[in-house]
């Protein structure tokens, strides 16, 4: 055996080794077995192989986060297999080990995509430290991805649940009851009621709070790209896939994936999502290997999914799989006692963010706000407060039509008039109108069909 015992005990700063899987490929049985015992003692799953060909078979059977690979192997060399792995889109780390190496070999290894290069004889703590760095890079990559999405405005703002009305108290109680479980959750409610806020609140009081919350609006991604967005793809999986890419399930691993507008998910993807929810494994586009994932899925929609199931636009089995627990968020007009509290909350929050003096709400102002029907729900109220902060005060009774009194129109009629007005402003250009409204082109087409428009 060429490895030597570790010189030190595991550090308390090391990653949670139980979350990772390692494949050791070496033609020396002593090295394989020694590393297997040493790494298993730290809690990670370890498999071994005596050749590149045997290692390739293990990769088809299981997912591995890292491979410890000897260069000098019988048959296919470790360096040759490394190049093949990287060209095939293997997203994990590869640590090369060898007893015979020079500077040129080390440079070639790093150019081929190796994460580290370790000479035999090695101490086990050298391999442990190398793997620890790999796992830490993977963790930072995942966190950086999530932060970039939030900075770009894709993640929204964690504001928590605001309001002490009966419906909001019941919603808060249900979230606290559901949060400790791993069950899927379906959030229902009109556009703008705060479905993502509720999903984030659920995540933050759950045992997954220290892991990532990754949101995706299913209406904003084309059907052609949705599978790759969710599950990732390997290099060459389709035209234009010049590099391997990890999907949102990878970045949400250990945490929560929030799928907003789940009713917009294409039927073929509904089938694949159902399989992931049942088997907890994903298959990147173009890959033969499945990857285990630990992700809580929270879905949301403003559609009547039972009607969508009856119309054949949504899979019944997926609906029942998502509907393990349902959180229904009432529209703002049905919890008017929360309007003043929300307005004051947004006033304090947005004034600090914008660097502007807060609005001085009078009782008459708050009564005015509470009298309005808020067809755009909490989102509309927040936008009004932000606009009023910028302009220096709430709009007067004639400056915002309908604001002074409750709207006499139904919500459906208000929505129709607003969409038609935006379409008119855009000269009938539905793609541009959809972008301005923040919905998908498919939504505009569906609404137009319902209203008998060509």
Helices, strands, pairings?
Elements: E1 21-25, H1 29-40, E2 45-49, H2 52-61, E3 66-70, H3 78-87, E4 93-98, H4 103-112, E5 116-119, H5 124-151, H6 166-178, E6 185-188, H7 195-204, E7 213-217, H8 223-231, E8 232-233, E9 245-246, H9 248-251, E10 256-260, H10 267-279, E11 281-282, E12 291-292, E13 296-301, H11 305-310, H12 316-322, E14 325-328, H13 339-354, H14 363-371, H15 377-391, H16 411-425, H17 430-437, H18 441-450
Parallel strand pairs: 1-2, 1-3, 3-4, 4-5, 6-13, 6-14, 7-10, 10-13
Antiparallel strand pairs: 8-9, 11-12
Helix pairs in contact: 13-15, 16-17, 17-18
Task: Give an overview in words.
- The protein is of the alpha/beta class and 454 residues long.
- It is built from 18 helices and 14 strands.
- It has helices spanning 29-40, 52-61, 78-87, 103-112, 124-151, 166-178, 195-204, 223-231, 248-251, 267-279, 305-310, 316-322, 339-354, 363-371, 377-391, 411-425, 430-437, 441-450; strands at residues 21-25, 45-49, 66-70, 93-98, 116-119, 185-188, 213-217, 232-233, 245-246, 256-260, 281-282, 291-292, 296-301, 325-328.
- The strands form 4 sheets. It has a 5-stranded parallel β-sheet with strand order 2-1-3-4-5, with helices on both faces. Strands 7-10-13-6-14 form a 5-stranded parallel β-sheet. Strands 8-9 form a two-stranded antiparallel ribbon.
- Helix 13 (339-354) crosses helix 15 and helix 16 packs across helix 17 (430-437).
- Mean pLDDT is 83; it is low at 1-14, 152-159 and 404-408.
